[in-house]
Amino acid sequence: MNGVEILIPLSLAIAFVFMVMPLFIGYFKMKKMGQAIREEGPEGHLAKSGTPTMGGVVFLTSILLTSLIVGAWQKEMTFSFWSILFIMFLYGLLGFLDDFIKVFKKRNLGLNSKQKLIGQIVGGIILYAVMKSNGVTDELFIPLIGNVNFGFLYGLFAVIWLVGFSNAVNLTDGIDGLVSGLGMISFGTYAIIAYKQEQFAIELICLATVGALFGFLVFNKKPAKIFMGDVGSLALGGMLATISILLHQEWTLLLVGLVYVLETLSVMMQVTSFKLTGKRIFKMSPIHHHFELSGWSEWKIDIVFWIVGLVMSALTLGILYN
């Protein structure tokens, strides 16, 4: 896609979110429905109770419509195109059901972890099966080693990769604007990698996602007028994992998505330490809450974490193309 064509998916996605999001927020306010804030979270978050949620419905719809319109125009409805949209839809549906139960059925927990995990695993298995039927190899590129054929074990890796990063992005979505900004950086980076590989269908979806998240950030920045909900965060994480697989650059997600990785590790370390010693490593996990309770504002956390994302993305591109 040339410079002008790049602007089309970006602009369409932004415009859709700008037009629809105020109506979506207005509906939630009219019905007096919003996010229930966990009492065990940071005390300052209690003031956010009642803030509309499920904003991911709007930006995922924006990504879908933009991708379909531009994809049909550019004739880029490839196997990769439909694979990414399939995972976006399935993981978004899981998140939607979770959010729907919380908001409309007034049950704080939504879907239980087992139900979500089963859905995520099924999605990963279907994706791998479709990849195999389309001749995708079981090779995994390992830096300094090269391509290694893992056979059926690659399928296990693919499922773990999707489930892991879907949940990692979900864990990171804990303060206003954080995942919206990080997502723009992550998908923008993969748009560049896809362009370099001439995988324009993937580039198109990445650009549509950047545009949709930019539009959403306007409403999601502190003080947030709306949250993305699990419908947004689970889908974004699944999409990133799928894109890294389809580009055969899985390892890059460990760098591009370093913040998501660290957020997840902080939870694992906290739980393990408490179970083994009865002591906590962090004031609260995920780690963005630790910084909150250490006196950092949400804006400061956003900016510092976004900078980490930018630096790691730049490093990734430098490693690949320098």
Provide an overview of this structure.
The chain has helices spanning 3-30, 56-74, 79-103, 113-133, 153-172, 178-196, 200-220, 229-246, 252-256, 258-277, 287-293, 298-321; strands at 139-142, 146-149. A hairpin with a 3-residue loop joins β1 and β2 (146-149). The protein has 322 residues and is mainly alpha-helical. The chain is built from twelve helices and two strands. Strands 1-2 form a two-stranded antiparallel ribbon. α6 packs parallel to α8 (229-246).
- Topology as H/E string? HHHHEEHHHHHHHH
**What is the distance, rounded to the nearest whole angstrom, between the alpha carbons of the first and last residues?**
22 Å
Estimated helix fraction = over 70%
Report the radius of gyration as a whole number of Å.
19 Å
Quantity of strands, as a count = 2
Cofactor: Mg(2+)
EC number: 2.7.8.13
Protein name: Phospho-N-acetylmuramoyl-pentapeptide-transferase
Catalytic activity: UDP-N-acetyl-alpha-D-muramoyl-L-alanyl-gamma-D-glutamyl-L-lysyl-D-alanyl-D-alanine + di-trans,octa-cis-undecaprenyl phosphate = Mur2Ac(oyl-L-Ala-gamma-D-Glu-L-Lys-D-Ala-D-Ala)-di-trans,octa-cis-undecaprenyl diphosphate + UMP
Structure in a nutshell:
70% of the residues lie in helices and 2% in strands. With 322 residues, it is mainly alpha-helical. The mean pLDDT is 92.
Index terms:
single chain; mainly alpha; two-stranded antiparallel sheet; 12 helices
What's the arrangement of secondary structure elements?
Elements: H1 3-30, H2 56-74, H3 79-103, H4 113-133, E1 139-142, E2 146-149, H5 153-172, H6 178-196, H7 200-220, H8 229-246, H9 252-256, H10 258-277, H11 287-293, H12 298-321
Helix pairs in contact: 1-2, 1-7, 2-3, 2-7, 2-8, 3-4, 3-8, 4-5, 5-8, 5-10, 6-7, 6-8, 6-12
